[in-house]
Amino acid sequence: MTSNEEYKKRFDTHIKIDEDSGCHLWEAAKNNIGYGLFRFRKGIATTHRVIMDLEGHDIEGKMVYHICDNYNCVNPEHLRVGHIVTGKQNQIGRAHV
Fold it and tell me: What value does the mean pLDDT take over residues 50-67?
């Protein structure tokens, strides 16, 4: 079984840091709307959820959303875990719905 440390090491090989925005840009597989994809545990998961899981956040049944509006970003400082209402309120507050 692969440990979180091993997953994180492999995950980090696919990131490029954008010095201007601070975004950690995913440079490997992506889905059709721009979310990164990563083989994680027993399947394929979106990278913004993977990194928050690896960082120790409880994401089960919750939404992981970007505050930088860059779906390709996996910087934990640019991500938040919350319920769908919180995520949608955040989008509406920034007029990105």
Answer: 95
